[in-house]
Write a structure and sequence with these properties.
By secondary structure, this protein is an alpha/beta fold. The protein has 3 domains: 215 residues, Rossmann fold; 92 residues, 3-Layer(aba) Sandwich (Rossmann fold); 81 residues, Ribosomal protein S6/Translation elongation factor EF1B (Alpha-Beta Plaits). It is 43% helix and 19% strand. Helix 6 links the parallel strand 4 and strand 5. The longest helix has 17 residues. The relative contact order is 0.12.
C-alpha cells in the first residue's frame, strides 16, 4: 500500500497549529564539540528543554488538535517508551481530551510520574515497546478509544518537522544534520524540510547498536524488524520502522550509523560537563555519532546540526551514565587498596588525591577477599582525573604512602 509523503507545506501548516503551544528551542553552537568532531561548526538543537522535556509535544499536539469531535469524546490511547506519553498527556490536558498511555516496564519512573502529572492514566504493560504497542491497539479495538501513534502518522511527522524549520532559521549554514531514529518520525519530518531547502543537505540517522533496524531496512528497500533490542537508550529502542515513516525516510535519509551504549554514555557525560545540558541516552546518541572514531562520519569542513531530542532521565540513571561515560573517556579509575592504620590513614589518602588534582569519588571499606592480607584493611577508591596518565600518577602516589599499597585497579 502506497503512503502519502509528508510535504513541506504540511510542516508549515503544523507550525501554525502548534506555534502557541511549543517552545522555539535554542540552537547552542559549541566550539568544543566542533573541534572534537572535526566540523567547522556544530550546533546543538536543544529539544531537551522543550515542554515535557522532549520534541514529542510537537507531533502529539498537531495530531490531536485535528481529531474530530467524536474522536475526542472517545478519549485517546497511545503507547510510548516515555516521551510521546508526556506529549500526548500534555496535549490532552490542553485540548480537554482524556488520555491513557501504555508504557513498557523499562520506562524510567521519572517519565511515568511526569505523564501522570499531566493528567493521563498510565498502564505499564510489556517488557519492550512493541508489546506495549500491541496491547494499546487491542485495547483501542475493545474500548473505542482513539489511538494516536507515536511516529507512524503524517500529522505526527509534520509536527516533528517543525524542528527543521527552526533549524533553517537558527542555523542557515547547516550542511549535515544528525538525528536519532526510533520509529523514524523525527528524522522523516526534519529531513523533509531540510531536503526541500537544499537536496544536498545530508540527513544522517543515528541508532544504538542494540536497536539498529533502520540501515538494513533502507538498504533492502523493505522494512526489517529486529527480534529484540538491547540498549540503554530506551527512548529509541524500537524494533522497526512502519510503513509511513519508512516511505518518508527512504526519500530524505542519506545514511544511518550506529553507536555503542558506551559511546552514548560518553556523550551524555560531555553534554553535562561541556554544554551544561542534561540529556537522556536517546537524546545524546546523535552527538555520540559526531564524536565517534568508529562510525566513519566525515564532518570536516561542515556545519553540523545535532538534535538533542530529549532530557527526561532519572537522576540516578544520569549519574550512572556519566560514570560509565567517564570510564569510556578513560577519566575514571577504581582501585582496591590495602591499608594499615585504618582509619587514621584515610586523611593521608584524601590529601594525596587532592594534591594530585584529582577528584575522590568513592572511599569505602571493602569486604575482605582472598587477595587481602589479614593485617591490612581492604579499601575501595574511585578516582576521577583528566586521563589515564593522570590517574596512573595518582595511584602511584597512593602506593608510596606509608601503610598503603595498591592491590588491584581498573580503568575501563
Amino acid at each position: 500500500m502506497s503512503r502519502r509523503l509528508v510535504t513541506p507545506e504540511d510542516v508549515e501548516t503544523a507550525r501554525k497549529r502548534i506555534d502557541d503551544v511549543v517552545h522555539r528551542t535554542p540552537l547552542d553552537t559549541s566550539r568544543t564539540f566542533a573541534e572534537l568532531s572535526g566540523a567547522d561548526s556544530l550546533g546543538l538543537k536543544l529539544e531537551n528543554v522543550q515542554r515535557t522535556g522532549s520534541f514529542k509535544i510537537r507531533g502529539a499536539y498537531n495530531t490531536m488538535a485535528q481529531l474530530a469531535p467524536e474522536e475526542r469524546e472517545a478519549g485517546v490511547i497511545s503507547s510510548s517508551a516515555g516521551n510521546h506519553a508526556q506529549g500526548v498527556a500534555l496535549a490532552g490536558n490542553l485540548l480537554d481530551i482524556d488520555t491513557t498511555i501504555v508504557v513498557p516496564a523499562v520506562t524510567p519512573a521519572a517519565k511515568i510520574e511526569a505523564t501522570r502529572g499531566y493528567g493521563a492514566e498510565v498502564v505499564v504493560e510489556g517488557d519492550i515497546y512493541e508489546r506495549s504497542y500491541e496491547y494499546a491497539l487491542e485495547r483501542a479495538e475493545e474500548t473505542g478509544e482513539t489511538f494516536v501513534h507515536p511516529f507512524d502518522d503524517e500529522a505526527i511527522i509534520a509536527g516533528q518537522g517543525t524542528i527543521g524549520l527552526e533549524l533553517l532559521e537558527q542555523y542557515p549554514s547547516i550542511d549535515t544534520v544528525l538525528v536519532a531514529i526510533g520509529g523514524g518520525g523525527l528524522i522523516s519530518g526534519i529531513g523533509t524540510v531540510l531536503k526541500a531547502r537544499d537536496p544536498n543537505t545530508r540527513v544522517i540517522g543515528v541508532q544504538p547498536a542494540g536497536a539498529s533496524h533502520a540501515k538494513p531496512s533502507l538498504e533492502a528497500g523493505e522494512i526489517r524488524e529486529l527480534e529484540d533490542v538491547d540498549t540503554v537508550a530506551e527512548g529509541i529502542a524500537d524494533t522497526r520502522m512502519l510503513e509511513t515513516t519508512f516511505a518518508n525516510a527512504r526519500e530524505v535519509v542519506d545514511d544511518v550509523v550506529s553507536v555503542s551504549d558506551r559511546e552514548i554514555a560518553a556523550a551524555v557525560t560531555l553534554l553535562a560537563e561541556r554544554a551544561k545540558t542534561v540529556a537522556e541516552s536517546a537524546g545524546a546518541a546523535p552527538l555520540a555519532a559526531a564524536l565517534s572514531d568508529s562510525v566513519g562520519l566525515d564532518l570536516g569542513g561542515e556545519h553540523v546540526g545535532v538534535v538533542i531530542s530529549g532530557g527526561n532521565v532519572n537522576l540516578t540513571e544520569h549519574a550512572e551514565l556519566t560514570r560509565t561515560g567517564l570510564y569510556e573517556l578513560e577519566r575514571y579509575a577504581e582501585a582496591r587498596l590495602a591499608v594499615a592504620g585504618w582509619p587514621t590513614t584515610v586523611g593521608a589518602i584524601v590529601e594525596a588525591v587532592e594534591a594530585e588534582g584529582a577528584e575522590l569519588d568513592v572511599l569505602e571499606r571493602a569486604r575482605r577477599g582472598a587477595v587481602d592480607e589479614p593485617n591490612r584493611v581492604p579499601v575501595t577508591v574511585g578516582l576521577e582525573g583528566s586521563g589515564p596518565e593522570h590517574l596512573d600518577g595518582v595511584l602511584e602516589t597512593l602506593s608510596e604512602l606509608e601503610g598503603v599499597s595498591v592491590v588491584e585497579r581498573s580503568l575501563a
